[in-house]
């Protein structure tokens, strides 16, 4: 036990010379106080001094409780007291105010110890209606702490409050307002929300009452915003920002901020007043704020609140106001560089509180590159500060800075410091911030480094944050994978390092990606095969391994070290250690092996035939074993090959991992790592708008007779009666601009896949209809329709019908197409069938676009420029400048341009970052030469696309098609 | 601010102030979880942590922890100084305040807090003004309690 410093304990604050300057940083009296049940020496003395009116009975009771040696003794003492109080309250003798107050206080104390209190409310209401301040105060306190929804009681309480509000006695009014603010119930809002605004703005209201009224209204607005009336008073509240009393300004600023969040337009006038007030506090050195100066910092609370209020609005439009605000923000940033005026931590905390709020405002405005970069540099300094708190906040604040396009690059320069923080910070909450920041600053240029660092951190990371890191690594690896072998390696590493934290979403996703990308399948098979060699590998690896070898094991079977039998034995060696779902997956892999490798059929059949499989206690496993065995015995090779065909590509959709991380972090908490970084004043939204208008006008052009709204589609496809009421799906249409194969449509019942080939002005499309259900589709028919105008431009073959498509089966239709002359619209594939008695109608826009009829043309630089000049007429050129919607990756861009159908010409453009292409569109009647140039601007994340052809409509259409691909 | 808790090193709650409507059960669960989380942290650690969807700001003064829960957009450092200003107010009022003052005069601790913070926001940040309000109230109190003491046995 340590030394006793005072009669009854250590002061919370130590102002003496012997104390360290940081209050409570190194507590020296940890044995002290509240060890209620310890022993004789801990018996507490009652305070020798008591302020105000000491209620001796209460003090004795509190002492008694503290001297109880056990929980049981405490409960016994409390029950005794409760019985006593009950009898007093019920007794015949009327209690005087003092006793009532004392007993109500005891009840309150008992409640705060954690015991339930179900009486005393009536006595408390009596107290708050008393004329004696001291009784009133305790009555209000009890009611504030022990809110009770008994309606009779509420009527009485409201009555008491009403009287006090009307009393014109400021201390009574304050007590009443405090009570409303503390309880904040709907009933109170109903009773007083109309009255308080008038108290707040009345000319003769005392300052302290104004302050209470403002915050009381704030609380009511938070709990019942519908009950707080807006009105004439709001304009007058805004003018409280000019009040002489800084306490009033402080309270009013909080209220205005809350109200402005609800209806910003009503409080716009507060912007100029807030800037003016802030400017007076921040920039004038001479002003004496007296008691509102806190450790040499002028009105830090008010400054923070004003900066917060300004974050409800965009940057001021008025130039003078805007420059005054900028001046304030610059001054705050400048002050951060000045030497401290005090060594006390309170000084630096208050100063930095204002600084961080200013930085928040700068980030919110996201419009002044200089300020953003200065903010970033300032935070960079804090990243290495000796105060843990500042390092934490700097990491947190930089996270939002990383999503601004102006400061993203500046944030990236701190990558080494942040990685170092991840390795050396001793506090997990700081490391967590470092992980968040690395995630936010990640882009294609540093993805490999960041993913590697996160992976190595994962080995020692705290259990509480492992799952989140796993999700983040998986997302970054997928998002920034140029080379999918790296992606596969990363995910397998994740499973190795933190297999228990790899959720289903993560391993599902790696399989989806491997199946959809045939360039990585062989590598994936080889890598999982190698990973499975480890004597102890995680069950998630067995799942991924089983699935991938089952699909693509054939790609590595040529090597004798990974022959079919070796693959099978390897998988089967893990079988007995795995859970039921994994075993079920492995059984499916085995039957796939039988299809892939006839030579291991007998071995696998033996395994399936064993008692441990055929008579397995688990129904699912047993059923699989029985069915797979039977299937392998009776089905012909052809049927087996059909049933066990390689899995078709998964439809592209948002990563389920990202959805999971969003769920985990809660909405709005996830930094935006999209390439499409936030833009100045939301101009990205603007460009989206233009896009839609373009689309609409282009559909309208199609239509010879003017029509509007819903009838549009009917007109366009008027030759088809059935499709009239069906929306045409265009979801995947634009994905096919640069590719010919894939899934064009999918719903719960049906999947439609396409394979297309084009040569000159001719094309052939294979349409595959897959029944995803286990039930038949009846009277299945499909036919292609196009507008009358389009019909004259392309020709195609039309109808296919099938009486039945069995559950799980796939049928194929062939469409032949000829391009007569250039066109803009696309034909529509209409599908009709019966499923479970209901008629299904589906319409899908077929991806037949003008660029499909491209033939690439190689040419020299000289030829190119000669033709470029020839096509110089204004109507021959179409240009589009647009924001990048995908990562700006050179290889991907090249692949897309090639997929578009033109030849990529190297060495033509003097700037090697630009792309130049040439090709000829073949139609039956004519050929149209086409030159294109794409100029990426990585810094602004923008592109400029220029097309020149001899025909205006062709330039226009090609530009539209290609312009949506990047 | 959503709530403020004062608790001892042994995890005993000394004061709790809630600025959002929560049931008793929820309050107890939150207090229990949070007290446990904070007591498990080492002395040199950062004063802030993410907890559920809230930001927790806490600081230890001698034997007592002061802990505030604020929302995502709130300023951590200024919250830390709200705690400090409250400690200063208690200290000035009680004269070298210690945990026992708060236990035996819990009602005063609440009254001081109400003058300083209301609805979870700073109402009056001037130390002088807050103390003036409390002292005026005490003056009213002393007059009345003097009157009572003469007539009451207990």
From TrEMBL, chain A:
Keywords: Cell membrane, Coated pit, Endocytosis, Membrane, Protein transport, Transport. It holds the Pfam family Adaptin_N. It is found in: Cell membrane; Membrane, Coated pit. One of its GO terms (cellular component) is AP-2 adaptor complex. Its main location: membrane. Residues 664-693 are annotated as: Disordered. InterPro entries: Adaptor_Complx_Large_Subunit, AP2_complex_asu, ARM-like, ARM-type_fold, Clathrin/coatomer_adapt-like_N, Clathrin_a-adaptin_app_sub_C, Clathrin_a/b/g-adaptin_app_Ig, Clathrin_app_Ig-like_sf. Gene3D superfamilies: 2.60.40.1230, Leucine-rich Repeat Variant, TATA-Binding Protein. One of its GO terms (molecular function) is clathrin adaptor activity. Coiled coil: none annotated. Residues 734-847 form the Clathrin adaptor alpha/beta/gamma-adaptin appendage Ig-like subdomain domain. It comes from the Eukaryota. Belongs to the adaptor complexes large subunit family. PANTHER family: ADAPTIN, ALPHA/GAMMA/EPSILON. Adaptor protein complex 2 (AP-2) is a heterotetramer composed of two large adaptins (alpha-type subunit AP2A1 or AP2A2 and beta-type subunit AP2B1), a medium adaptin (mu-type subunit AP2M1) and a small adaptin (sigma-type subunit AP2S1). This is AP-2 complex subunit alpha. The lineage of its organism: Eukaryota, Metazoa, Chordata, Craniata, Vertebrata.
UniProtKB/TrEMBL annotation, chain B:
The keyword Repeat does not apply. Residues 1-140 form the AP complex mu/sigma subunit domain. GO terms for molecular function: clathrin adaptor activity. The keyword Protein transport applies. Its main location: membrane. It holds the Pfam family Clat_adaptor_s. One of its GO terms (cellular component) is AP-1 adaptor complex. Gene3D superfamilies: 3.30.450.60. GO terms for biological process: intracellular protein transport. Keywords: Coated pit, Cytoplasmic vesicle, Golgi apparatus, Membrane, Protein transport, Transport. It is found in: Cytoplasmic vesicle membrane; Golgi apparatus; Membrane, Clathrin-coated pit. It is a peripheral membrane protein. Belongs to the adaptor complexes small subunit family. Subunit of clathrin-associated adaptor protein complex 1 that plays a role in protein sorting in the late-Golgi/trans-Golgi network (TGN) and/or endosomes. The AP complexes mediate both the recruitment of clathrin to membranes and the recognition of sorting signals within the cytosolic tails of transmembrane cargo molecules. PANTHER family: ADAPTOR COMPLEXES SMALL SUBUNIT FAMILY. Adaptor protein complex 1 (AP-1) is a heterotetramer composed of two large adaptins (gamma-type subunit AP1G1 and beta-type subunit AP1B1), a medium adaptin (mu-type subunit AP1M1 or AP1M2) and a small adaptin (sigma-type subunit AP1S1 or AP1S2 or AP1S3). Binds to MUC1. This is AP complex subunit sigma. It comes from Amphiprion ocellaris.
